[in-house]
Amino acid sequence: MAERILVDTGPIVAIFSKDDAHHDLCAETLESLTPPLLSCWPVLTEAAWLLRARPEVVEKLFAALEGGLFALLPLVAGDIPGVASFLKRYRSAHLQLADAALAHLAEREGIRRIFTLDRRDFTIVRLKGNRRLRLIPQGP
């Protein structure tokens, strides 16, 4: 069974935007990963908002979900305290909802790897037991 990997907004936007500065890096990284990459509604909402000027690209994003490239992990009312805990813990770092949701899902699901361009937030986030997430692609 392939290792489960979370995906953040930045790589999703870069993969679907050929003019994005990180497109090539993210497209190459994606080729080395086994789908589905896991995410959540806050990330999908953020990506769709960032891609809003290009509705055809948003349609491709949804087609990728339907095709199994990405899968959404559920967030239910019982997850609110966990997400809120990350928001509170990293308030001074201005952690955003999508990032807090991914951190919570990593903790809840026991996932250690995340495909992200957000080094600022995900290098400081710690899961239970002071565990760090392993970031993909690896930074310099």
Give an overview in words.
There is one protein chain. The protein has 140 residues and is α/β, with parallel strands linked by helices. It has a single domain, classed as Rossmann fold, CATH 3.40.50. It is 48% helix and 14% strand. The protein contains seven helices and seven strands. The chain has helices at residues 9-16, 23-31, 41-50, 55-67, 80-89, 97-109, 119-122, and strands at 5-7, 37-39, 70-72, 113-115, 126-127, 131-132, 134-136. The strands form three sheets. The chain has a three-stranded parallel β-sheet. The chain has a two-stranded parallel sheet with strand order 2-3. The chain has a two-stranded antiparallel ribbon with strand order 5-6. A hairpin with a 3-residue loop joins strand 5 and strand 6 (131-132). Helix 3 packs antiparallel against helix 6 and helix 5 (80-89) packs across helix 6 (97-109). The radius of gyration is 14 Å and the shape is globular. The termini are far apart. The model has no long low-confidence stretch (mean pLDDT 95).
Question: What is CATH's topology name?
Answer: Rossmann fold
Main structural class: alpha/beta
Unreliable residue stretches: none
H/E element sequence: EHHEHHEHHEHEEE
Report the β-strand fraction as a percent range. 5-15%
Backbone CA Rg:
14 Å
Mean pLDDT: 95
State the total count of DSSP E strands.
Answer: 7
- End-to-end distance, in Å? 29 Å
Trace the largest sheet across and list its strands: 1-4-7
For the record, the CATH class is Alpha Beta
Tags for this model:
140 residues, 7 helices, three-stranded parallel β-sheet, Rossmann fold, alpha/beta
